[in-house]
Amino acid sequence: QLERYGPELLRLQGILVSLWQHKARLERYQECCIGFLSPVRRLPAEILQTIFLLGSESSQTPNVIPVPGQVCRRWRDVVVGTPELWSRISVGGTRFTFIDHYEDLASLFLERSISQPLSVSM
Question: From which residue to which does the signal peptide run (predicted)?
Answer without folding.
Answer: none
